[in-house]
């Protein structure tokens, strides 16, 4: 509890990190309260060609799209899809990457080499390219986007945790625990994992922003949620045929992606400054 209070107080003093936290909080509130923020529950999926490509104003706050859909409602409900994809994909990546990194870093030898070479194979190909290949093979759907992002992002956690575990296992308190006969799994869970939690938290925050950006790119290429689902990347892709006349078509989803990704990046940078003791010492030294 004290650690949480410390983090919140430090975030409050860091303006950029606090701004990022507010943006993310707003995203969560919008996603959860979507039915309350939209006049009609089916407005995000409704099509009304009679009012297609209407500019912002009056009944349509953000204007309408090529099928007469309310862009405001579609952006609001699109927050749910975006947040779901990011949370599940990063969560699955954590569940795969962290245990693999812990095992590979602690045990080493042939097991560690095999696990790290497998992760290196995934890291050898740019994530966006590999995600496109997987999504293209499986077909467009939210589930396949989550699977593609999970399969391509877990090695980043593995590499991070592996490096931290390698440096920690030579510390005196780890050697003392091993000398006392503490089981390896208990050393990993009670001694190593809490000490690598800080970089994992930072990587998770930054990874959420990167995952949202990659998911939007897949949607832009037509590999995300199939229509008429209100997915931000697909909305921008559909707007290309009507630019620059219907400028509002791409503005709202594009601005939403920009703000959310910026929010996670600002929060990640702030958490890194707070949780990394080396950065804190450098800041105190300058002071």
The count of strands amounts to 0
Mean pLDDT: 85
How many discrete structural domains?
Answer: 1
Q: What is the CATH fold-level name?
A: MetI-like fold
CATH class call: Mainly Alpha
Helix tally?
Answer: 13
**Overall CATH architecture:** Orthogonal Bundle
Q: What Rg, in angstroms, do the CA atoms define? A: 22 Å
Query: Helical content, roughly?
Result: over 70%
Q: What class, by secondary structure content?
A: mainly alpha
CATH superfamily: MetI-like
Anisotropy-based shape: elongated
Low-confidence stretches: 279-287
- How many angstroms does the end-to-end distance come to? 28 Å
Largest sheet: none
- Assess the beta-strand content as a share of residues: under 5%
Q: SSE order in H/E notation? A: HHHHHHHHHHHHH
Care to describe what's here?
The structure is a single chain. By secondary structure, this protein is mostly helical. The chain has one domain (2-286): MetI-like (MetI-like fold), CATH 1.10.3720.10. Helix content is 75%, strand content 0%. The two termini are 28 Å apart. The model is unreliable at 279-287 (pLDDT under 50).
